[in-house]
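ingest -> validate -> predict -> emit
validate: passed (alphabet ok, no gaps, 307 aa)
predict: started
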Amino acid sequence: MKHKRYRTGVALGGGGARGLAHLGVLKVFDEEGIPIDIMAGTSIGALVGGAYASGITPEEMKRNLEEYLKSPEFQSSAIKAIEDANATGKLGLGQKIQHYLKNRFYHVQAMFKPGIISNEDFQAVIDRFVPDIKIEETKIPFRAVATDLVSGKQVTFSSGSLREAVMASSAVPVAIEPLKEGEMLLSDGGIICLVPTSVLKKEGAQLIVAVAVDRDISCEEEFTSGLNIYYRICDIMASKLENYELMDADVVIRPEVGDLHWSEFSQAMSLIEEGEKAARESLQSIKRAMPGVKKWLSIKQILKKVT
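emit:
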């Protein structure tokens, strides 16, 4: 008798550097043999998901990331400068003054440019991590989500250049210049679809696993300026929107990412570890939701003992 095969979808959410936790989650999926039939990603989730769907392993991505973070290219980049300006933790007086001035510099710069980082500079980063193939050529069916700033509508990429789709989905507002495509002006998918579970539902996924890497909504910050208040409003809106999206998920994996700024890529290794930890803690939930996986994992455990 032929058993019914559950079509499993994995949705990787946006969150900038916090999304590096996705690598740890996917590493556990690989080690445990959890099948993925379709993937969808927003922002950093599109970058990690697109690379994984094309056949690049989490370990390969991690090695590539380590090399990039140590490279002069990253150390002298605008992304690194933004990270330094928004770094969390205890700082000395001199560092606080320096970071304050850097923040003000970027705020002023953003008032006169569509993005602090140009399409050309960001393209080089995307090219480093995502292969030059079409979405139709990925080993696992893949969807990337962006937002059209002209129409205000969600744009879901299911064909065309994988790199262009990831670039459009990852264009963080203010930081990265939107991508012009025809009549559309494409920006971060997280503006309206932070964790793309709804995309997977429309694609017919019968079971959806979502990975959410949003900032901790709790706040002890003092609101001393209109800008602080504006950022806080954005965080609250994003949290409410995400909760709505997660209603479509059967299993939600939430790595402990704290309130790291989206640019804090230097925390990469600890974020990957948090993703791995959260995925392992969710294995029982995944087993309960996926009878076929539960059976497969049991066989795998027996084989491990034999070998």
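The CA atoms of residues 138 and 268 lie 25 Å apart.
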